[in-house]
Amino acid sequence: MDLVIRSARVIDGGGGPSYRADVGVDGGRIAAIRREGEPALSGRRVLDAAGLALSPGFIDMHAHSDLALLRDPAHEAKAAQGVTLEVIGQDGLSYAPVDDRTLEEVRRSINGWNGGGPGDDSVDFDWRTVGEYLDRLDRGIAVNAAYLIPQGTVRMYAVGWEDRPATEAELTRMKQLVAEGLEQGAVGMSSGLTYTPGMYAKDAELTELCRVVAAYDGYYCPHHRSYGAGALQAYEEMVRLTREAGCALHLAHATMNFGVNKGRAGDLLALLDEALADGADISLDTYPYTPGSTTLAAVLPSWAAEGGPDALLARLADDDTAERIRHHLEEIGSDGCHGVPMEWETIEISGVSDPALGSYVGRTVEESAQDRGEAPWVTARRLLIADRLGSTILQHVGHEENVRKIMRHPVHTGGSDGILQGAKPHPRAYGTFPHYLGRYARELGVLSLEETVAHLTSRPAARLRLPDRGLIREGHRADLVLFDPETVAAGSTFEQPRALPTGIPHVLIDGRFVVEDGVRTDVLAGRSVRRVPAGGR
């Protein structure tokens, strides 16, 4: 065999008890498993794994590495965590399918998430279709990637930035674009229903698109319409909509945030349990932290963004319109901020596109406003205009008891929601998976180590309908992680968000070491992961 991993504590991803075994790898797959007491395996290379746990590679169900995979061959943010597969195309906004106009608009609108805005030539945008983008990934990337068709981008392509129902012809075109993307290998469709222009879609439009997704055996992954004042109603809407469409549902970063939802995780789980008992196909992902992260522009009311980025900047520059925006933010609660009146002390600037604005980073909007002797909205407005909407934020609005309760649920999976841009990104981008293993399994005992691994491996693989990933089984792909259960921990913190984890010495993809002895190799073993649709038409 190519490799024998000797005497590992095998945590196989199924959630059952771990066991001691030799695991043989050959031709990129798990070729043999010999439990303690059975005849030993031999190989061209033998790795002594005494003291280490061997698990399937971790699957990041919510990643924002759409450009990072192309720009950064090392991609240590994920490879060092043991992530071997990321699901990208999230929150309804990504880079395929597009035409030339749509590509330029989406590059500008999510520059804060991914970079790639005007003037950024670090990536050659030489694709337009989903299939062409996946082909680009297949030239070699650090970790594997699956793609969700972004509903907001599809609406941008077919309808534009107008807040109105799609015409029959426009809806037909959107359905065609979704079907084409699924045929080309996408695993489902995402939405960002607090982000423009995707949030302009009404339920009937989303249901029709979900019918297409269901026909291809994909799943719908919505960032739904509220995580704040209307959170429970927004979850109910997504459950109802997908059940009507006959479509599987995966709830993105399924949190209950803001003061109005403190202690209300049980309400969400009761809703899901009732639907699951009635036969619904539902799963969810979370990150093991309380703050959220997005762009500063995302918290603005949706009406202000109608027409696209240039229209939003023009409204911000107009004093009367800017006052209307402030009124919605601070006194009513904008739909972009989940219906909750803005609390500027919770909004920390995590990154800016213009380095000249770096003094804002690491400080809340309220702190920067106090330094300048002005109202917080004045500071926020100035930054939005000066940075051309490219600023990212941490939003400190979560509740630890909700985080723990939701992660215990049987349909829970792990997702980093990791934005890799900015001088001070959320530490979840570099730390989600070791934080689950070290903090929540070993230190707090919220889940057993075996159950935690199942949440990060076999459960997401089942949602993605990948029959040969997520478990340590003979014949499965050798996407594997060796970690020390006693020392594994996130290195990243809010003060040092790009610090790498500890206790993860080896990571393999298709049997090739992408991390060896704690060091990132030059191996680019990742490819696009495409699922052939079942029953597609």
UniProtKB/TrEMBL annotation:
Taken from the record, one Pfam family name reads Amidohydro_3
The record's SUPFAM superfamilies line, in alphabetical order, gives:
Composite domain of metallo-dependent hydrolases, Metallo-dependent hydrolases
Q: Which GO terms describe its molecular function?
A: hydrolase activity, acting on carbon-nitrogen (but not peptide) bonds, in cyclic amides; hydrolase activity, acting on carbon-nitrogen (but not peptide) bonds, in linear amides
Q: InterPro entries of this UniProt entry?
A: Amidohydro_3, D-aminoacylase_insert_dom_sf, Metal-dep_hydrolase_composite, Metal_Hydrolase, Metallo-dep_Hydrolases_sf
- Its domain of life reads Bacteria
**CDD domains per UniProt:** D-aminoacylase
Q: Amidohydrolase domain location, by residue?
A: 45-515
Provide GO CC annotations from the record.
Answer: cytosol
- PANTHER family reported for this sequence: COLLAPSIN RESPONSE MEDIATOR PROTEIN, HYDRANTOINASE/DIHYDROPYRIMIDINASE FAMILY MEMBER
**Name under which the protein is recorded:** D-aminoacylase
User: What organism is this sequence from?
Assistant: Streptomyces clavuligerus
